[in-house]
Amino acid sequence: MEQIIKEFNKLSHSNGFEKCIFHVDKFISVLEQTRSKIISDPDNANIYLETLKKEVEVLSSKVKSAEKEIYLSISKFGKCLDKVFKLDLSSAYNPKLFPIQHKEELDKAILMHLARSGYFEVAYDFRDEAHVTLSSDLLDQFSVMYSIVKSIQNQDLTLAIGWAIAKRRQLLDHGSNMEFILHKVEFIRILQEENNDLKALAYAQTNMSYFGERSGYTSPYRKLFEVPSYDKLSWLFAAEFCSLMGLSPESPIYLAVLAGTMALPVLAKMGAVMKSQKAEWTSANELPTEIELPSSLIFHQIFVCPVSKEQTTDLNPPKLLPCGHIIADQSLSSMKKDTVTGKMKCPYCPFTSTCDESRRVYF
């Protein structure tokens, strides 16, 4: 990884990009100046065009030189990646088993990821070009969130505290202590940076006394100085902001890419092994091997039917019997076929019931 980081730093610090942009901007400026001269003095248009031709040739040469520098850096970085990561990742992708479905939802997720990341110009262009239906009000809300997040990262909590006070009731109903955390960070800042005990005390009495009974601290000094960094605080704020909007705290696109990055090497290796053994990955919408992910990327419990020993899916969901035991829908259907009266005995207790008495379970 050290070599990869080294080549990446070379690529990121290459000034070829700046040179290329500078020369292109210069080229545009020359074109605009020549156009203005021709409009104001059309009789000498040929002279201006001849001068433009010479300047364009010089600028074109400089752009090509800058591009060459960029391509060289990218090429070295690509070769370094190929040398370190020798796995063929294409073997991890099977479009027949995992076809792209609900493209509209994917486009909407991409658009929202761009907006919540602050790339609003790109987000609006993507919305128009991909014809994604998303209200401008939602994008405006993300714009408000991003401006507050940037101010937090600049260690200015004024906007964030104002927002939290305005949303106090909603935050408390949501079980969030975001406003208290913001006030606590600001209190510590006044205490440490301004070195003004009286001002800090007055701030705490004015803004933090409301949370005295809600904090649950047995001591007024407990965890007082345990405050998050401004980067962590900005993430917490964005998560709470999105939660109040009814959205996930983290971008679904970010989580999917993160989980996919962890899964790709395992899937590529499994694909290579299956290929060498002339076996095929045939289970649609199901991975051929277990992928170990951190707890932060596990959102749904996995239920394995105790009868069939198979993991439940959307097509074979878990069903709750009246007695409280849970089995897969296909197992329930198989048990129904084996009865004449339509009443089935639970495989784990003497209770009997019909198939209609069972209901879908959501974990």
From TrEMBL:
Residues 305-349 form the RING-Gid-type domain. A zinc finger (RING-Gid-type) spans 305-349. Keywords: Cytoplasm, Metal-binding, Zinc, Zinc-finger. InterPro entries: CTLH/CRA, CTLH_C, Fyv10_fam, LisH, Rmd5_dRing, ZF_RING_GID, Znf-RING_euk, Znf_RING/FYVE/PHD. Residues 141-198 form the CTLH domain. Its main location: cytoplasm. GO terms for molecular function: ubiquitin protein ligase activity; zinc ion binding. GO terms for cellular component: cytoplasm; GID complex; nucleus. SMART domains: CTLH. CDD domains: dRING_Rmd5p-like. The keyword Zinc-finger applies. SUPFAM superfamilies: RING/U-box (SSF57850). Belongs to the RMD5/GID2 family. This is GID complex catalytic subunit 2. It comes from Magnusiomyces paraingens. The lineage of its organism: Eukaryota, Fungi, Dikarya, Ascomycota, Saccharomycotina.
